[in-house]
Amino acid sequence: MVARSEFGDETTEWRWWMTAMLAVILLLHAVGVNAAPDTPERIAWRKTPIAVELAVGVERLVHFPGAVKVGVPPQLQGALRVQSIDGTLYLLASQPFAATRVIVRGMDNGQIYLLDLSAVADGGGSSPIEIYLPDEVRANGSEPTAASGPPQYGYVTLTRFAAQQMYAPARLLQELPGVVRVPVKREPVALVRGDAVEAVPLVSWRAGDLYLTAAKLTNKTERPQTLDPRTLRGRWLTAAFQHNRLHEAGSEADRTVVYLISDRPFAASLR
Fold first, then answer.
1. Domain ranges in the chain?
2. What percent helix, strand, coil does the chain show, rounded to 5?
3. What SS3 string covers 32-63?
4. CATH architecture of 47-132
5. 236: helix, coil or strand?
6. For residues 44 and 23, what is the distance between their CA atoms, to the nearest angstrom?
7. How does DSSP classify residue 140?
8. What is the pLDDT of residues 220-265, one digit of tens each?
9. Rounded Cα–Cα distance for residues 75 and 69 (Å)
């Protein structure tokens, strides 16, 4: 899926883009991007193992829909303390360890969950994780309709919102109720396979159970590059390029923006 803007020739368009980007950067510094550290990260169980990274010496909570029991592999004995109380796992790593598959079983309904647990000495996650069973899997990019709660948006609406935030003049910017900014590190990441294109996350939002991230892509070579979603690393529900072709490095059209939608924060989806 490729979104093409209608701003005229590429030179004019990219000059406007640079101006818009400056406004976004100033806005980032003005309002900040800190989120409450104890806000749970909600993840839908869709039969895909859920990666949970721990920080050594920091207890992390994982909530489930009901009471669960967990089987700890022998190789984690002595490296990981696990307590299960009323549907919540209390995980505490005493030393680093590589990703290890752990099976969690619901005691009421027999539901099986798979966690890929790992622990690192520096970094790691600390915010609680809430795992839930979706009423239905999204189809056509839409959310199940709820009688109450925050509004739910489809993929197309969210992508349009992100493109507007990145390209439209400030006076035309509009907010979407329930869509809030979340932290993202603005430093190069290995998003595109190969060494030709550099990727830097710019801004990220949360909309209900979805995460929306705009990342800048820049051609580092002297040859034009054609972008293809299949070359992107990570687990994404959708990926839309503002332009799917980058001119040679140093030209006014050597960069673009990709809009990524996922069911986990950007850093977790990139792994």
1. 10-36+152-270, 47-132
2. 20, 35, 45
3. CCCCCCCCCEEEECCCCCEEEEEECCCCEEEE
4. Sandwich (2.60)
5. coil
6. 35
7. T
8. 999 999 999 989 999 999 999 998 899 999 998 999 999 999 999 9
9. 18
Percentage of the chain modeled with pLDDT above 70: 79
Q: Vertex 179, ends 193 and 115: CA angle to 5°?
A: 55
CA–CA dist 31, 55 (Å, integer) = 28
pLDDT digits (tens, 9 = 90+) for 13-32: 545 544 444 444 333 333 33
Residue position matching structure tokens 């051609």: 219
Per residue in 135-150, pLDDT (tens digit) is: 544 434 444 444 344 5
Mean pLDDT score across all residues of the chain: 80
* Rg of the chain on CA atoms, in Å: 20
Count of residues in the chain: 271
CA angle 94, 96, 97 (to 5 degrees): 115
Q: Across-strand partners of 123?
A: none
CA distance 182 to 190: 20
Q: Which amino acid is at 154?
A: G
Q: How far apart are CA 74 and CA 87, in angstroms?
A: 23
Q: How many CB atoms lie within 10 A of CB 224?
A: 14
> Which stretches of the chain are DSSP H helices?
10-31, 155-167, 266-270
The 3-state secondary structure of 98-111, one letter per residue: EEEEEEEEECCCCC
Among the listed residues 126, 149, 131, the one whose alpha carbon sits nearest the alpha carbon of residue 38: 126
